[in-house]
Amino acid sequence: MSPVPERMRIAIFTETFLPKIDGIVTILCLLLQRLQEQGHRVILFGPPGGPAEYAGAEIVGVGGPPVPFYPELRINIPRRFVWERVKAFQPDLIHVVNPVVLGPFGLLFARWLKTPTVASFHTDLPRYVQYYGAGFVVPAVRSYLRTLHNQANVNLCPSTAVRGELQQHGFRRVRWWKRGIDTELFTPGAVDAEVRNWLTDGHPADFLVVNVGRQAPEKQLEVLRETVSPLPGVRLALIGDGPSHQHLRKVFAGTPTVMTGYLRGQALVDAYRAADAFIFPSTTETFGLVALEAMACRLPVIAARTGGVLDTVIDGYNGLFYDPSRPGEIGGLIERLRDDPCLRDQLAENALSHARSRSWRATMDQLVDYYRAAIRVFRLTSSQLADHTS
Fold first, then answer.
1. Burial letters for 47-75: b for 16+ Cβ neighbours within 10 Å, e otherwise?
2. In terms of domains, do 246 and 221 share one?
3. What is residue 78's three-state secondary structure?
4. Main-chain phi, psi angles of 216, to 5 degrees
5. Which of 113, 245, 342, 384 sees the fewest Cβ atoms within 10 Å?
6. 198 is in which domain, residue-wise?
7. How many domains does the chain have?
8. Is residue 345 domain-shared with residue 379, that is, in the same domain?
9. Does residue 261 share a domain with residue 122?
10. Residue 304 phi/psi, 5° resolution?
11. pLDDT in tens, 89-142
């Protein structure tokens, strides 16, 4: 077999990309930056409306109607020109990200081109559909995703908890692709008094708890209405946007809560630094990148003891867990941090230490190693099949 090329040509098919803001998009942007640094050539096929280029990668918009119950996402079905672009690019590998509609075409094109594939699992879609009132289709959705992923030479997932679940449901060749953040951007620093005043609605002496992320039903942010808002001397800031944003404005009306919309870059870092603790009530996370960002800004995390966050938070060391079936425990944990500055400081210091060990470049290098492994597996399998049929 010929050696794997040092500099690869990689085609990425993703259901979501800029200008949308979420954990998947953040990971993809970091990936494109790292691939450019290493000299790989990349073409990314994603939803329309994004930039024509990002970090040296050509971005090709694939049109389609928005999902009725979730207009931030589109049903992107490629026309013939997409196939022509892939064929002309002649990728060494095709990476399908969270395959649902567009991703399956990437797998199909890979089969036509006899190209190795990597598929990465990011969103627990079966759990999500339950929150949108379609629990009866969960078995069908899981079967569909399993069929797609099992076509790939290597499947990747963001946490050990998700890896176990996927293997239990019959997903094959599953490997853990670790997550990292930009530890040069997300760092501790002085509190910006104006930001603190803004996020506490003019009460900077109060204890400030923040949540960052996409605001959607599966994030369970409503539980904070009764568990955080009634606490004396405690303020809540919800940073983000999404399909539930306007609903949440009504839910938290009249409470000590500030809703900022999306923040990015230094503005987001300043918001983390201005807070006293980070709250993460979602029970559907495959990883929870924002929790790691908060920790890198020296914030302790309070989270539900479930899902991907189990790889990030160590209870009593860098954060505190509550039983996801008993969200009422959130209030008591916040009061512990508010009333015990020494505990909060200890957790925050340990959180910072943990986050600093999770560099995004190292995790992207791990992915490139998986790319090379997928190419080797594909070539070996193809060679064995040829020998068997000859």
1. beebeeebbebebbbbebeebeeeebbbe
2. yes
3. coil
4. -145, 165
5. 342
6. 193-356
7. 2
8. no
9. no
10. -70, 135
11. 999 999 999 999 999 999 999 999 999 999 999 988 877 777 666 778 889 999
